[in-house]
Amino acid sequence: NNCAIYDDSSGLKSINTAGGGSITAPQISTVGNYYGNVVATDGSVQTGGPHVADPYQYTRSIPPIPPYQPKSQNSWSGQIANLTGVIAYDASQSGGKVTVSGDTVLAPGIYIIANGSLNATNNHALSGTGVTIILTSPTPSTDNGTFAFSTTLYLTAPSTGPTAGIALWADRNLPEASDNITGSGSSYVKGAIYAPSHEVKFAGNQQAITNGCTQLIAYTIVLTGTPTFYHDCAGVGILDAAINWGLVE
Length: 249
Fold this sequence. Notes:
Number of helices: 0
Strand content: over 45%
Structural class: mainly beta
Number of strands: 21
Helix content: under 10%
Order of helices and strands: EEEEEEEEEEEEEEEEEEEEE
Distance between the termini: 19 Å
Oligomer: single chain
Shape: globular
Radius of gyration: 18 Å
Strand order of the largest sheet: 9-11-14-17-18-15-12
Largest sheet: 7 strands, parallel, barrel
């Protein structure tokens, strides 16, 4: 709904549907070609299209990692304060992951998970407004951290600051890995899921909130179920990669 799909792959099946699946969006363009039931409602699917630049590569920055929170804070539940604006957790202290162990509300700010993953796979809701959650580390090329969500998500990105528009961010210097995001029917991520070196597997039957704003940028994207995305993004702080007229905020 009010969305565009841009694929920079030159493959013959750079956009591929299978198993009776379909993709429908107003505008769809790929450098390569597509296979299956792919429908552009504002015209035809553009094949052999132009490469579209990453809108965040040179416009947003991961803050320096501050001192880590105590190991005891690697289990999230209840209200999580962020008095300094940027706080960090060392996942290597708790088996390589920070875990959402109860319904959690994040205060506005930036949350850095270093040396591991963020897991919310136990049906505990994770919510926050003005929030960016980042996977990175002092040596990101050796960090296999991922997002693993099978829960209700209510996340809204900050509209200003160094991470404006990005709700979930996997450092582009992380090695290839798979993020798994499965939300409930009421889940939403308002802002960007930004994982330029990762495969993002987005599953579920959720209807994103009306007048919502979801942007998904990844090395590979796999959609299953029947998710619906909305892209009404005025005031959210994202950057769109516009195919013919440059970057527009």
